[in-house]
Design goal:
The structure holds two protein chains of two kinds. Chain A folds into three domains: 287 residues, no CATH class; 114 residues, no CATH class; 62 residues, Arc Repressor Mutant, subunit A, CATH 1.10.10.410. Helix content of chain A is 41%, strand content 20%. Chain A is built from 15 helices and 16 strands. A nine-stranded mixed sheet of chain A has the order 2-6-7-10-1-11-12-13-14. A three-stranded antiparallel sheet of chain A has the order 5-4-15, with no helix packed on it. In chain A, strands 3-16 form a two-stranded antiparallel ribbon. In chain A, helix 9 runs antiparallel to helix 10, helix 12 packs across helix 14 and helix 13 runs antiparallel to helix 14. The longest helix of chain A has 20 residues. Chain A starts with a strand and ends with a helix. By secondary structure, chain B is an alpha/beta fold. Among the domains of chain B are: 255 residues, Amidase signature (AS) enzymes; 75 residues, no CATH class. Chain B has 15 helices and eleven strands. In chain B, helix 9 crosses helix 12. The longest helix of chain B has 24 residues. The two termini of chain B are 17 Å apart. Classes of the chains: A alpha+beta, B alpha/beta. Chains A and B meet through loops of A and helix 9 of B.
Amino acid sequence: MEFEAVVGMEVHVEINSKSKVFCGCSADFHAGPNTNVCPVCLGMPGVLPVLNVDMVNKSVAVGLALNCAISRWSKLDRKNYFYPDMAKNYQISQYDLPLCQNGWIEIDLDGQTKRIGITRAHIEEDTARNTHTIAGNQSGVDFNRSGVALLEIVTEPDIRSAKEAFAYLTALKQLLQYLDVSDCNMEEGSLRAEANISVRPVGQEQFGTKTEVKNVASFSGVFKAIEFEIARHIKLINSGGKVVQETRGWDADRGITVPQRLKESAHDYRYFPEPDLVPIVVDEAWEQRIRESLPELPAARRSRMGTQYGLSAYDANVITLSQDTANYYERVVAVGADAKKAANWLMGELQALLSAAKQEITDCRVTPADLAALIGLIDSGAINGKMAKDIIAEMFETGKAPQDIVKEQGLSQITDTGAIEDIIRKVLADNPAQVGQFRSGKEQVFGFLVGQVMRATQGKANPALLNDLLRRELSRQEN
Amino acid sequence: MTTPLYKKTVREIRDAVRSGALTAVEVTEAHLARIADVDPKVDAFTQIWTDEALAQAAAVDAKVKQGIDPGPLAGVPVGVKELICTRTGKTTCASKILENFRSPYDATIIQKLDAAGAVFLGKVNMDEFAMGSSTERSTIKTTKNPWNLKCVPGGSSGGSAAAISADECAIALGSDTGGSIRQPAALCGCVGIKPTYGRVSRFGLVAFASSLDQIGPLTKNVEDAALSLNTLCGRDPRDATSADLPVPDFTKALTGDVKGLRIGLPKEYFTEALNAEMREKVEAAVDVFKSGGAEIVPVSLPHTDYAIATYYIICTAEASANLARFDGVRYGYRNPAAKTVEEMYVLSKSEAFGPEVRRRIMLGTYVLSSGYYDAYYLKAQKVRRLIKKDFDDAFEKCDFVMGPTSPIPTFEFGAKTENPLEMYLADIYTISVNLATLPGISIPCGLTASGLPAGLQLIGRPFGEETLLRAAHCYEQTSGTTLGDPPIA
């Protein structure tokens, strides 16, 4: 029997508000344990939560970017369960009336786009962090993270493979970074993804039994965990077994999922409206204000830049992957560089240097103007491509302008016909055997001769000029 | 013979302290002496902050000497209910689970009173976590009614009411979730007002039922209540449910007349459930208003019968979540025998919560459980709206609603502890007011034949405290029914 996977994702995003969602404490939870805490986020007796408006603004922005309907009236609810990382033993969340509903996001699958439905995005607070001694006899709780603003984004069960899940996370992260609402660092837990996975025979409408996979610390981990679960489900069913609905954790070291011990045996969260907070009322004017403040989003930018600069779909995709790269590119072109060449240099040489140095484009010492200048030097024939590669490495290292490097190292290209002709004659005289082979029809030897001439000029000859002059000299000598 | 200092009203004290006629230290010492004298019998106070109070008073006096405004409640001695957070002393909620708890912060109203020059004498008793109508649910001590030491002071703010009645302080802070200010005020013969929900910040009030809780003052007379509200009321950025409305000078409302006011008498408040003597007192009060020129109109609050059931679903649901935080993890009692996390929860809570608190947590957990939520919690919310609508309809015909505060006068210890339902009935006239988020005031309206106080309740429109104070003050001035001193000394 052939099976198809059905996957839905739940992503918790830590929103980068300066303060926590219900109190004024700093949201920096990397500080020393229990330093960014106050009576409110410690759940002391008598305290009350007050909703952080910045969180609402950012959540509405995400909702709009995800094509969601923004609720005119939504509320917060209490989700009740006991655990030592819960200051109040209930979490303030949104139950039946989330702030954002019914949206979608487009994902890219090798050039094809697919729309993934967004069920909802809602506001909630993060929990504290428990740590345990290795011996297991003592536990500590760090409340710095307690009350940090979270946005939970839930998809429809529209995802059909691990690859699609990966593409979804990529697109979502890109969107969130464009909106500048989260640093989306999965290792540090500012983006946490859980997948609900089931399989069903192809053609069957009804969903199979699902499992939920948690504890995944990277996108590739999500990919592997989903692949593993799909295979596990299919194998179970094919061998006459049954999938048990449960929560499983991803064991990255062993590359498998394992059943997770549940926090509470029976999950009855006893949700009810949070009486300490007033409803969130986002009127049309408020929504409009946020809509107008949205930056150009990835899909729009991709398509605009493709058209405006004549970029291929692939190039436009790569360049707009991050807003910073796209901004950099547009600055290079703005000062006059050829759009296609700018794309090639950015995605090629510069990206290779950045990757090797593990640097972000924002830290790059090569300014957009300098990259444009470099491309200009090639266009004008002042330097050739090979020289340019050495120059950009130097620019990357030192931050110097390309003109200065050229001047300092005397790197200008030889465009003097007479000088090149002299060298060609000398090379041909030194290599009579190869000249003979060429004349007898061995065309490949031409390349060898070009190389010899280039070497004799220390790479400074204009390659096109060299080619022309070499051919002319060879045919002249033959006659 | 001059009136002893402890008999003085808020107005008298603050005027004398501000003018320099009396020092705040003198006033404080007089009240501390009064507490030393009568509290061994009454047991209203759970903590007495002698040193801190005298230091506060000295600071007020220093301001007066330096010509700095010492505030509108300069030198006024205040008793604080055990569930209001104070940096000074402990905040125990009269529960074993918080028996050693010290709050790291002051409630907003504590900050406001402090800034107004008030002097905190200490904390006063209550039912554990404000769950009760007799203060018998305190795990600290048994507070007695100054009018009859064999009887309860009412509850849950029984310590507050007894302290006022016994002249141990001039303002006692209470909290009212279903009648916890008004019912003890009635039973102890003092004035108690529950302001409109949202009038007074709840920040620092340990929550029982968040959508019903409201802080208010208990005082010797209506003017003192108005003066207290002037300081207590107002928007608090730390309480999202506090109302963003200007705070009037409530004393300006005390015009001394009720001419033209329309008073609604709900027929549902005058049934067989109402003790005959209480009915007589309330009816006599109605006559006082009538002769003062008020118009009496019959009104109906048809959903009154459902109030208690509705209340006990909503308040227990909220309480089950509010009290979940008392788990022994960060503060409060932790059972030392617990070996696992679950044992820590179960053993600590089972041992340190009293029977009424446990009962309400279980009830609340039940009504929120999946499968029961719609039948209980959701339905109760709908009935709550109907109860509110009853009042809206009544206020079409009248300016405020009037009736008894409690169906019965005070009762002897142990009389109702065996049957929780009978205890719940003590609040039948007060509970609807919280459900409808309205203001309500209880004022004394005479003594029964056996010398026990009766209380008259006035219920106002949302944020209609001024009308209530005006009418209550006029009654107080014209009825001629002063209770005199309780027979404790």
